[in-house]
Amino acid sequence: MAIGWLQCGCERLGEHDSWWLMLLWREMGEFRRETGGREQCRDLAIFAPNRVNSEVGVMGSYLEEFSEVKAKNSSEEALQRWRKACWLVKNRKRRFRFTANLSKRFEVREIQKSNQEKLRVAVLVSQAAISFIQGISYTVPEAVKGAGFEICADELGTIVEGHNVRKLKVHGGVEGVAEKLSTSLTNGINISDESLNRRREIFGINKFTESPAKGFWLFVWEALQDTTLMILAVCALVSLIVGIATEGWPKGAHDGLGIVASILLVVFVTATSDYKQSLQFKDLDKEKKKITVQVTRNGYRQKISIFDLLSGDIVHLAIGDQVPADGLFVSGYSLLINESSLTGESEPVNVSAENPFLLSGTKVQDGSCKMLITTVGMRTQWGKLMATLCEGGDDETPLQVKLNGVATIIGKIGLFFAVITFAVLVQGLFSKKMNQGLHWSWSADDALEMLEYFAIAVTIVVVAVPEGLPLAVTLSLAFAMKKMMNDKALVRHLAACETMGSATTICSDKTGTLTTNHMTVVKACICGEIKEVSSSMKSSAFCLDIPESVVKMIQKSIFTNTGGDIVIGKDEKIEILGTPTETALLEFGLLLGGDFQAERQETKIVKVEPFNSTKKRMGVVLELPGENYQAHCKGASEIMLAACDSTLNSAGEVVPLDEKLINHMTDTIEKFANEALRTLCLAYKDIGGDFSAENPIPFEGYTLIGIVGIKDPVRPGVKESVAICRSAGIVVRMVTGDNINTAKAIARECGILTDDGIAIEGPEFRMKTDEELQELIPKLQVMARSSPMDKHTLVRHLRSTFEEVVAVTGDGTNDAPALHEADIGLAMGISGTEVAKESADVIILDDNFSTIVTVAKWGRSVYVNIQKFVQFQLTVNVVALIVNFSSACLTGSAPLTAVQLLWVNMIMDTLGALALATEPPTDDLMRRTPVGRKGNFISNVMWRNIMGQSVYQFTIIWYLQTSGRAAFHLDGEDSGLILNTIIFNSFVFCQVFNEISSREMEKINVFKGILKNYVFVVVLSCTVFFQVIIIEFLGTFANTHPLTWQQWSASVLLGFLGMPIAAAIKMIPVGSR
């Protein structure tokens, strides 16, 4: 009879809807791609025999909206389409809470367009009005003057934001503005508490306005927006009115109050879960916004948070940094600023003394500078933009979207079953009335019975629409992100957690990721002689047989051609600032007896070309006495050696580099590299008096000063982490800018380079054809001397040609394209630039490769946990739906009431998600092969477990319904209520033990580590405790009857038997897909 109803229902379904049932048997994403689903359709031919062949294309079109969303860079059209496809949603506010706010993103683009136009107009007006400086006057507000300043925040805003050169000149240029801000361009601001407070009062703080955090009661209100709960609330109200009118108080109010109590319980449990999630996301958002900058205050260089910056601060910026507030250029070299984040304009802007305006939120694309902060916080355009941008939200993840699709489809099925169930129950009531000859006589009891039928139908929809599926993804991701933060990994984008679980390849940097990034010069080749270097060595001992002129030249090259700095700290100790490489060289310069400050004061730097990973060198030009110039260059050894035609001999004389000397230097570089040392060459060139700062620094005809070998030890635990990746089916590749011999030595030490692996240099890799790359890349394990575009090309080929899921590490500005291209971009938290971090999905806070492996483990844990929950929820869905539907069709009554179904819904939805989606990762996860790009989310293993458990549970419930009275010797007027209570109790305990079985989808031992997950234990204990309360004490409201200990034992035993059944089902072999 049930099959007949189902067939009848399918014949009546609409054009798209006959496919709903098919989705219970196939994962929605992969089904569309497998031969159009024709083979799978045959199973449904018994239900819709005339439609199987005609609607194959319809299924593909229906699923299109849920398959277009990617883990990264999804189009807004795709995000909009899937939302529209989810028309059957119980609670839109809750379902779409953790999705992107597309309207806010549109506002951001409009603001960017407006900013671009404002800047363009401001520059034009400013250029046209420079000659009209006379006559401009400015009156200082009394409050500003009283605080000790001569210029107000609004005036500063019009100067910088408006690029107003004429106003800047009126105020005496940058020096005049600094004086009016009571600051020193050399020593910065005075940091006494009183001084800082005055600045905050007059100029504001460097924070943007954020929308206030939602309180708990707002989450309660949003939980109440559930359409089905509102309908049930109306049913409860009608039940209360009719019940009290006919049966009086309190007896007539029991059914209605039971539903109200159930609704309130569901609402408060849901709101509590959502509120805790929101707090976790808020904490993570705070971590994402933590950016530190170098400032000079009271004459000392120090690192502070950008949120502590004040007007008048002197900030030092380098390539890859974010401009933290509006300000003016003080000094610097080759400064290029990318303003795309503020204006949408990708063309970089050259900032100099002639165009000194720096805007908050822009990025340093090249060069370095010192800037004066003028305007902070919400007075800047970036502050206003961020206030809107922070409401834009994170893109939803592919799994969220896919499960939203599953929820929508199952919801349609549930709606269909609910309508049929209601129709069958009402038809049964009509038949009974007809048989009694009372079809024209209707009482309040009949109305209440019909109302109960309607409540059951609505509750079937409540249970059938698995809103918890997509929300479980968010819950699991929030839990994982919080735990990963403790493990030194900051997740910037939700989807990264999910995608990392599928990673098949990791392309890792060497320096700072595989190595410690604590560099020291341990060897040097000077005047053709190799010398050991030790921090305990005195300069006189090292320089004993080196001419003084050569020592002076080395000191000059190190101290002038550097991106680092040597400063005196608050405790009068010398502090070396800069990258680890720069720090190692500056330490070597000090070891030689050099004086950094004296050297910098004696020389005038005319031009600087900062180091970048494309050129692999850094150069400066110095102005010498007599209007002559000298260029100094340092960089990758073989590249620098090729640019040299002479060297310094043991007497300090310049001699030509003949073949013998070149071979000696080349051998020295190889010797250093084979000892896993990073090698750098230092060189100089006298370029006479015909040099202009506008010209590039020449790169030929240099004199080699020396070669240094820098030790950067491999991090402890890296070799073990690489081995874990290998056992997990993840291929680790090293991509570095270092010498190939250094790279190979480190790669072997880490266990990355194997006997059958290939190591190649970037220039050679670039020359390969697509056919050659197809053969090369699977064996490629090390790429040395690579450029950022080489890394980008490798990632692109791995993703497109080999369909790998690729994770890439990066720290520099030029790594941004590869981080953006990769499935998961991993930026370094210590050595990484702000540009790299902004392009990344995860920030590795300790720059450690072992942390990347931890991220992969958590990613797999998230994926598996969501699979467990989906398996558990679909089992409850299937059984609850079929039990009530079949019972209504065959017996004319439903064994599970509205209150009971609401309780079951809470067990499988909020509580189930809490229990299963928060399982911590285990080491076993890293012994499995990765899911990869083609893996089905709902696997054959899951379908096997769902179907096996569903058949068992349905058999038990059906047996109890048909033979329960005889089995338990029930008779009397309460026998029906007792039997329904046993059915309800057995059904709940089936879910309790199935929840335990769902902890492992393939393993028999499901108790391993169960006590370590206190959330699981608490949820399970609470479920059992409240079930006892409902049965024994809330019978009046929940339509239950207290059970004897024999009936309790039987209910629990029937639930427990599901565990050995689940263990037996797991032994049935199925395909991996």
TrEMBL record:
Localization in the cell: Membrane
Q: What is this protein called?
A: Calcium-transporting ATPase
Subcellular location, principal: membrane
Q: How does it sit in the membrane?
A: Multi-pass membrane protein
EC identifiers of the protein: 7.2.2.10
What are the UniProt keywords, alphabetically?
ATP-binding, Calcium, Calcium transport, Calmodulin-binding, Ion transport, Magnesium, Membrane, Metal-binding, Nucleotide-binding, Translocase, Transmembrane, Transmembrane helix, Transport
Q: Which organism is it from?
A: Rehmannia glutinosa (Chinese foxglove)
Q: For this UniProt entry, which segments traverse the membrane?
A: 227-245, 257-275, 409-430, 450-480, 874-896, 975-993, 1014-1036, 1048-1068
Q: What class of enzyme is it?
A: translocase
Q: Kindly give the SUPFAM superfamilies that the UniProt entry links to this protein.
A: Calcium ATPase, transduction domain A, Calcium ATPase, transmembrane domain M, HAD-like, Metal cation-transporting ATPase, ATP-binding domain N
**Gene3D superfamilies for this protein:** 1.20.5.170, Calcium-transporting ATPase, cytoplasmic domain N (3.40.1110.10), Calcium-transporting ATPase, cytoplasmic transduction domain A (2.70.150.10), Calcium-transporting ATPase, transmembrane domain (1.20.1110.10), HAD superfamily/HAD-like (3.40.50.1000)
Question: What is the purpose of this protein?
Answer: Catalyzes the hydrolysis of ATP coupled with the transport of calcium.
In terms of superkingdom, the source organism counts as Eukaryota
* Entry keyword Glycoprotein: no
Domain Cation-transporting P-type ATPase N-terminal, chain residue ranges per copy? 170-244
Q: Name one Pfam family in it.
A: Cation_ATPase_C
* PROSITE patterns on file: ATPASE_E1_E2
Reaction it catalyzes: Ca(2+)(in) + ATP + H2O = Ca(2+)(out) + ADP + phosphate + H(+)
Q: Which family does it belong to?
A: Belongs to the cation transport ATPase (P-type) (TC 3.A.3) family. Type IIB subfamily.
